[in-house]
Amino acid sequence: MLLVSTFGRYLTRQFIRAILSVFVTFFFLIGTLDFVELMRRAGDSPVATTPLIVQLAFYRVPAVAEQIFPFAALFGGMFALLTLSRKLELVVARSVGVSAWQFLQPAALVAGVIGLLSVVAYNPISATLKRQASVLEARIFARSGQVLTSQPIWLRQSSVDGQAIIRAVSALPDGTGLAQVTIFSFDTAGRFIERIDARQAMLRTGHWELVDARVTSATEEPQSYTSYLFATTLELDQMRQSFTPPDAVGFWSMPSVIEQTKRAGLDTTRYELRYQSLLARPLLLVAMVLVAASVSLRFFRFGGVTRLVIGGVAAGFVLYVATQLSEELGSTGIVSPVIAAWLPAVVGTMLGVLALLHQEDG
Q1: Which of 51, 139, 144, 295 has the highest CB neighbour count under 10 A?
Q2: What CA–CA distance (Å, rounded) separates 46 from 145?
């Protein structure tokens, strides 16, 4: 097999070097841009210092850079194959009977292994750093002791008194409670009991401790309380998971998070989609390499290389956009998370193979 030959090992080194070089280049570019943006924002914060901003940028970059693995496989694969073609090494390989399928074995293997390592090793680290970045960002930029989220926080809980729907504007920096809370309480038969508005809700064992609460029911006049207790079966980890973004949960922790979220009666679609997307990433990177190969095998002396490269970049972006669109459909529940995560990778791989079958003559 070519994989275990000297030429196969040479190709493997070329693809590893090319893909990792592209990834590292984008990583430092993203880090530089993020640092500049954070320095601009730091002008409004009295506690922001340059070392803190550097630390925050270091924590944030891995999670953002994780999204460029498919492009690293695409551009790295194209660069490696075009370099081999320009040096006529592919011409020599073809002349001795080596087919495209044979010298693409190292490329597919490298892409798959890098995808696998990005899931089992890189992702848990980036998720941990993202959580630390959220805490540090709240410490530097938060106003009024709150960590603002892009969307309101919604919770549903069950207790001995019935069910309740909880809406909060934000989470507190220490993650032990919510701010600007509204609770709609229902009895065991589903009948409305009361509405509670509170400035803060601290989660204790077996109950919420509401601060500056105003209780409105259908049968009594509204009442105000400095402190008000409301029964709950939610645990602290379950409450935190409700506003923890999926990309802040590591791959190895995802199954337990999904199970705990289900037990709490919360929607697990986002976490299931993220988990399936991570599982499908190695195949997606292989698909990107096949797309790169379909436009990078033309010999330089035949001309038209630039047009093919532009076509390959466009095809890679189309595949990436299709992946994002599929994930959006999965996150809204229109399609199954499994289908949403795996369909772009499977279709991309099949199209790459089809393009190579059309070009390959030996």
Answers
A1: 295
A2: 14
